[in-house]
Amino acid sequence: MMRRASCVACVRMTDGVPGTLGELDAAVSECRACPRLVSWREEVARVKRAAYADQTYWGRPVPGFGPVDARLLIVGLAPAAHGANRTGRMFTGDRSGDVLYAALHAEGLANQPTATHRGDGLRLCDTRITAPVHCAPPANKPTTGERDECRHWLVRELELLAGGLRAAVVLGAFGWQSLLPVLADAGWVIPRPRPRFGHGAHVELPPRSPSDRPLHLLGSYHVSQQNTFTGRLTPAMLRAVLRAAADLAGIRPQAAGPG
Q: What is the pTM of this model?
């Protein structure tokens, strides 16, 4: 059960628990639980980067993106200050997103290779993207307290996706460590010792209930510029993980081509 958050959206609900992903996304976007993150995301939206001076920044928590019946979940870290914090959609409007969406399109999991703004026509195939922290943090580094404060959103997201979810790709060690306890809360059994993060890591998590299905958990280096510019993560490496995850999730990818 999702605990109550100190945010306006939760207070408005009769029992504090969003019943659909649409309700969850709306509630996430109104959260003001972490003062440091609220201050930073709003300052960035007010001051802006010179290249985007004529744009209106989103400047709020960024909800997950993708279909409500997704079979594959991609878990990042947190929104980028001038990417998703500007556009209001995960991995949209920055170079990390350029790498991720190009790979998703190449594997037939997105209808186009670019993501520039909400309303650009981008659609994901049986795939949803989310993060353990929904607000842009200073220096791209949320605190453990901020991660824990945001955790209930991810728990509820997984609960709402659990019926169809078959695989998850985690981008980076922070997301991996954040996701494991959330998966346990959402009904999957985490082996002991806990699985270690690594690029290409793969572990099958059994369900707590025999009537449910297992979840395939895969790891990939994050699509940060630090990793992609240095060659630590190449497009081929990312595509290989996404391809394996889609296969494990039983997704029939769209034919890659113009969006």
A: 0.91
